[in-house]
């Protein structure tokens, strides 16, 4: 119950598709940038609409592809 109340105050979470688009744009614009720096760039763009762990996992997956 408390969690549902708290979730009402959190920003809306970004969809996986929207997040992947942003990550791909950041990676394309910054070739050779270290993974940690890429994650930082993405986190600034999503402005709290995606969890850091989720961003990290998606950046890793995109870089590995």
Q: What do you see in this structure?
A:
By secondary structure, the chain is an all-alpha fold. The protein has helices at 2-7, 16-29, 35-46, 52-64. α3 packs across α4 (52-64). The longest helix is centred in the middle third of the chain and has 14 residues, at 16-29. The relative contact order is 0.18.
List keywords for this structure.
single chain, elongated, mainly alpha, 65 residues
How are the SSEs ordered, and which strands pair?
Elements: H1 2-7, H2 16-29, H3 35-46, H4 52-64
Mean of the pLDDT scores? 91
Q: Structural class of the helix and strand makeup?
A: mainly alpha
- Looking at how many chains there are and whether they match, the oligomeric state comes to single chain
**Regions with pLDDT < 50 over 5+ consecutive residues?**
none
How much of the sequence is in beta strands? under 5%
User: Whole-number radius of gyration?
Assistant: 13 Å
Number of helices: 4
The helix/strand order is HHHH
Described by strand count, sense and barrel closure, the largest sheet is: none
Distance between the termini: 40 Å
Helix content: 55-70%
Give the gist of this structure:
Helix content is 69%, strand content 0%. With 65 residues, the chain is mainly α.
């Amino acid at each position: 119950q408390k969690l549902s109340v708290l979730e009402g105050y959190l920003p809306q979470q970004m969809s996986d598709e929207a997040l992947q688009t942003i990550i791909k744009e950041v990676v394309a614009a910054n070739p050779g940038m270290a993974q940690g720096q890429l994650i930082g760039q993405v986190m600034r763009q999503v402005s709290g609409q995606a969890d850091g762990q989720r961003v990290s996992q998606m950046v890793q997956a995109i870089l590995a592809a």
